């Protein structure tokens, strides 16, 4: 189920819900949640949130302030509440997304 969910997520967007995944696969959202807990040890939402955070982090590290903005990157990865995105990003990576974007590696 989790592999099919990953494939389906390519069509649904970076942070699909267990309900949407279940509906797309013809199974209950309970099956989706149970499968993610069994295989990855976290909920489907936590799995996809972490995956989206990693994608946003990679994109911010590769970009420059003149080529991208934090808002563009965050919304592209499915984060619509920018304050919540910044707080979650900081808890994951130890710095604000604007700091990552401004850094020159």
What this model shows, in words?
By secondary structure, this protein is mainly α. The protein has helices at residues 2-12, 18-25, 29-40, 44-62, 70-76, 82-93, 97-102. The chain is elongated.
Q: Which value, in Å, is the CA radius of gyration?
A: 15 Å
Poorly predicted parts: none
What overall geometry do the principal axes of the alpha carbons give? Answer: elongated
* Mean pLDDT value: 94
What is the number of strand segments?
0
Listing every helix as H and every strand as E from the N terminus to the C terminus, the arrangement reads HHHHHHH
Q: Estimate the strand proportion.
A: under 5%
* Sheet with the most strands, sense and barrel status: none
Produce the secondary structure layout.
Elements: H1 2-12, H2 18-25, H3 29-40, H4 44-62, H5 70-76, H6 82-93, H7 97-102
Summarize the structure.
With 105 residues, the chain is mostly helical.
Q: What tags apply to this protein structure?
A:
about 100 residues, mainly alpha, 7 helices, elongated
